[in-house]
Amino acid sequence: MNLRDNFQARIDRDEKIEPKDWMPDDYRKTLIRQISQHAHSEIVGMLPEGNWITRAPSLRRKAALLAKVQDEAGHGLYLYSAAETLGVDRATMLDDLHTGKAKYSSIFNYPTPTWADMGAIGWLVDGAAIMNQVPLCRTSYGPYARAMVRVCKEESFHQRQGFEILLTLCRGSEEQKAMAQDSLNRWWWPSLMMFGPNDADSKHTAQSMAWKIKRFTNDELRQKFVDATVPQAEILGLTIPDPDLKWNEEKGGYDFGEIDWTEFWNVVKGNGPCNRERLKARVDAHEKGAWVREAAMAYAEKRKKKQQQKVA
Ligand code: 3HC
Fold first, then answer.
1. Alpha-carbon Rg of the chain, whole angstroms?
2. Which of 14, 118, 144, 229 is the residue whose CA sits 20 to 30 A from 209?
């Protein structure tokens, strides 16, 4: 059996592929692409919520939002580390993000004008992330699967704190409930776009399914997300902004309207409402943080020399 067939047989037996194992170059390449872009999404995803940390309506809300944004930073670092096990270095990945060569999730290119957006992001965006990330705990590449187990534990807190923010608003004044509905109206469709293009238009899904990088297709996960989220909107007393949303008894799930794929590809290509602002914020942070990296490297160098002198 040749190397490639043997590799596929391992995948078919649900064996985990580890960094030192033989793997096809295109398996390695697509994992570096997906994991690094996942990491970029976590780091850029801190920005829309960071916008509200200093304006949270109470100390409790501020503490929860701070904890969530800090978690996202940690998720990004786990994922960069998982990608590095495939032979790509951090500087290259960050350069690809900063030069616009690498993608990050389209969802983070939308503005967060009201406090209700903190609720909608936790409830919908982290809810969609959970739908996508729980299966990734069983992805065929070991370091990615193990990073996801830790990430998913924290995502459930993210989703619940978001839902609770909206529940509080929906039980508040008419203005507060209207603010929650406005936020759902703005975040619903971009959240469905997080799952990627329809399977028929997805260039990676078929191969990613064959290699068990993905355990469900984009459309399957999107459908699961809609079916799980519509009843939650009913508990909130909010209306999903989709006139075509209807329970389909036969399929045991909701039918829903067509996604605006022109908007999706527009945002993916860099023309969303906040793309420039997000990328500038990341480039500025990276440039302003250069002294921290240099100091850490100098300290590490000094310690290494001291260790070597001790040994000599
Ligand atoms: N935003 C930006 N680009 C997207 C996208 C989106 N929502 N959906 C798809 N794309 C891109 C893909 O990256 C690919 O482009 P590329 O070849 O240059 O990488 C192209 O569109 C075709 O899409 P495919 O569906 O064929 O690509 P994938 O098989 O990679 O599927 C994916 C896309 C479902 C996002 C998959 O990559 C994935 O599951 N990634 C891991 C999860 C992830 O990255 N989630 C992003 C959000 S993280 C998050 O929400 C954190 C939370 O804590 C808030």
1. 21
2. 229
